[in-house]
From TrEMBL:
Aminoacyl-transfer RNA synthetases class-II family profile domain mapped to chain residues: 33-464
Subcellular locations according to the entry: Cytoplasm
Single GO MF descriptor: ATP binding
Assembly mode: Homodimer.
Listed InterPro entries: aa-tRNA-synt_IIb (IPR002314), aa-tRNA-synth_II (IPR006195), aa-tRNA-synth_II/BPL/LPL (IPR045864), Anticodon-bd (IPR004154), Anticodon-bd_dom_sf (IPR036621), Pro-tRNA-ligase_IIa (IPR002316), Pro-tRNA-synth_IIa_bac-type (IPR004500), Pro-tRNA-Synthase_IIa_type1 (IPR023717)
Protein name: Proline--tRNA ligase
Reaction(s) catalysed (UniProt annotation): tRNA(Pro) + L-proline + ATP = L-prolyl-tRNA(Pro) + AMP + diphosphate
Function, as annotated: Catalyzes the attachment of proline to tRNA(Pro) in a two-step reaction: proline is first activated by ATP to form Pro-AMP and then transferred to the acceptor end of tRNA(Pro). As ProRS can inadvertently accommodate and process non-cognate amino acids such as alanine and cysteine, to avoid such errors it has two additional distinct editing activities against alanine. One activity is designated as 'pretransfer' editing and involves the tRNA(Pro)-independent hydrolysis of activated Ala-AMP.
Gene Ontology biological process terms from the UniProt entry: prolyl-tRNA aminoacylation
Lineage: Bacteria, Thermotogati, Thermotogota, Thermotogae, Kosmotogales
The keyword Ligase appears for this protein: yes
Organism: Mesotoga prima MesG1.Ag.4.2
């Protein structure tokens, strides 16, 4: 491809609304263009990268025996009503009505469609296991689409689904996908961390996320040298029940004027934040809940939703709390709570015996609070947001944290969908059983941003060879020079015939602009034909190196070709984190 014919409009400056380095560089490098918030067009360079990632994903799926299909984007609402996810998925779902006023959604995922498809096809255990995948666009109405391709409204995704007659069969396929996802990241050449994860609205009893490590990743990952690793939405903590100092006290109501927050109440009553019961009101499918946690801890809403098996759960608004309890949020507490409000508490509450909580009376709190004596807790759960330094649940050592970008997620769905959608097969004994399912997602377009976030420098993108838009860029410093033009075209033809993907920069612009564009676009190897060509010398510079290597072509291009092969075989971008 000649650069003069390539549609790759590079920019000196990034758009003002670009928030991460990845989208800044992708826009500046002419890979993508924004259409609207969370919606992007892929230009030729971006599309080449996208297709290469897609090909790697497809090859690894085929290698484990998963078969490619294509399902409709438009999905009827009645299928989602069967599973109950029409409400669970919430406002992120792109909903619409047709001319007959029937509801549909633009598919954010395809569990309902694939289960519907297979329940009409599968009837015997002999047909199992089955593994099917597709690579198609997905749609989610993100409330705040941001971070470029990392959180967009329309994105390319590979989603796979497996069907089994036994849990052992699911376990085997789950391991295969785990291995395939690891190979995808290894083939691209990225540092990554696999962690236990929250299953969210997808469901299931086990899931793992594959995260590309990056300074500005939106996921916080907790990990330990013993091998334990989990996202902060899922990470457990080692319960070390700490009994509150002092003796059990009598319950007293005390005035706390103008003290609403944990910090204000602890300062006014001269107690620590650990002595305070933080009471949070949530609204779910079955009514209102009060979640209790110690004042110095943060409640993990993902854990709360999982504990209550309600993905529609949201924090009640101040007005809803006032209407429900007749008191502002700052004075809410579990003592005297209406029976229709269910109390769910974190395990750390068990250690309290002389605590402070809201008195359900404006301007007042209770002191001397003893859980169990003064109020009843309906259920106990791990509700704490784990942070760096908390003890590992496996070995007790302080956990470390890192930032990551989720690119893959695998789930053991079990029978969640087959039960709700009446998916059966007959087993060896002729009994009807619900088939067991797995689900496996990979963000193809999201992977582009993850790569750029991990691999870039002050000059631009540093593409790994496996997904670079071109392998080599031949830079003709002065294309008007007949010798430069002749040798550049000759070299371009030789490299292309040798099987390399080559971009010939034959534009009539300054050498400085050509060099800046080459670094910005991030092609692995640049070959420069400039002033030293008169001496039979060209420069070979890998994108990862500061200085070029001079190679003679006086006796032909054989030596140059061997040097290029060597440079490409040794080419491996190193992230800043790995270098440190």
């Amino acid at each position: 491809m000649r650069f003069s014919q390539l549609y790759a409009p590079t920019l000196k400056e990034a758009p003002a609304d670009a928030d991460l380095i990845s989208i800044k560089l992708l826009v500046r490098g002419g890979f993508v263009r924004k259409v609207a918030a969370g919606i992007y067009s892929f230009l030729p360079l971006g599309f080449r990268v996208l297709k290469k990632i897609e090909d790697i994903v497809r090859q690894e799926m085929n290698a484990i025996g998963s078969q490619e299909i294509l399902m409709p984007i438009i999905q009827p609402a009645e299928l989602w009503h069967e599973t109950g996810r029409w409400d669970d998925y919430g406002p992120e779902m792109m909903r619409m009505q047709d001319r007959h006023e029937r509801f549909f959604t633009l598919g954010p995922t395809h569990e309902e469609i694939i289960t519907h498809l297979l329940r009409n096809e599968l009837n015997s255990y002999k047909q199992l296991p089955v593994s099917l995948y597709q690579i198609a666009m997905k749609y989610r109405d993100e409330i705040r689409p941001r971070f470029g391709l990392m959180r967009s409204r329309e994105f390319l995704m590979k989603d796979a689904y497996s069907f089994h007659g036994s849990w052992s069969s699911l376990d085997e396929t789950y391991k295969q996908f785990y291995g395939a996802y690891s190979k995808i990241l290894q083939r691209i050449g990225l540092e990554f961390l696999v962690v236990e994860a929250d299953s969210g609205a997808i469901g299931g009893n086990e899931s793992h996320e594959f995260n590309v490590l990056a300074d500005y990743g939106e996921s916080t990952l907790l990990y330990c040298d013993c091998g334990y690793a989990a996202s902060d939405e899922k990470a457990e903590y080692l319960l070390q029940e700490e009994s509150q100092e002092g003796a059990v006290a009598d319950l007293k109501i005390v005035p706390t004027p103008n003290s609403r927050t944990v910090d204000e109440v602890s300062a006014f009553l001269e107690v620590t934040s650990r002595d305070i019961v933080k009471s949070l009101i949530y609204k779910g499918r079955k009514g209102y809940y009060m979640a209790l946690i110690r004042g110095n801890e943060e409640l993990n809403e993902s854990k709360l939703k999982a504990a209550l098996e309600d993905q529609t759960l949201v924090m009640a608004t101040p007005q809803e709390v006032l209407d429900l309890l007749g008191v502002p949020i700052g004075f809410v507490g579990p003592i005297g709570l209406p029976k229709e409000v269910t109390i769910i508490a974190d395990h750390t509450i068990k250690g309290l015996k002389n605590a402070v909580c809201g008195a359900l009376k404006e301007g007042y709190h209770y002191s001397g609070v003893l859980p169990g004596r003064d109020f009843k807790i309906d259920s106990w759960h791990d509700l704490k947001m784990v942070t760096e330094g908390d003890p590992c649940p496996k070995c007790g050592a302080p956990m470390k944290s890192a930032k990551g970008i989720e690119v893959g997620h695998i789930f053991k769905l079990g029978t969640k969908y087959s039960e709700k959608m009446n998916g059966y097969v007959t087993d060896e004994k002729g009994n009807s059983i619900h088939y067991i399912m797995g689900c496996y997602g990979w963000g193809v377009s999201r992977t582009i941003s993850a790569i750029v976030e991990q691999l870039h420098d002050e000059n631009g993108i540093i593409w790994p060879l496996a997904v670079a838009p071109f392998d080599i860029i031949v830079t003709a410093v002065n294309i008007k020079d007949p010798i430069v033009s002749e040798k550049s075209i000759q070299l371009y033809d030789i490299l292309s015939e040798a099987g390399f993907e080559v971009l010939l920069d034959d534009r009539e612009i300054s050498p400085g602009m050509k060099f800046k564009d080459a670094d910005l676009i991030g092609i692995p190897v640049r070959i420069t034909l400039g002033k030293k060509l008169a001496q039979g010398i060209v420069e070979v510079k890998p994108r990862t190196e500061k200085k070029p290597l001079e190679v003679s072509i006086v006796d032909g291009f054989d030596t140059l070709l061997e040097e290029i092969k060597k440079e490409l075989s040794n080419y491996r971008p190193v992230s800043k984190m790995e270098a440190e």
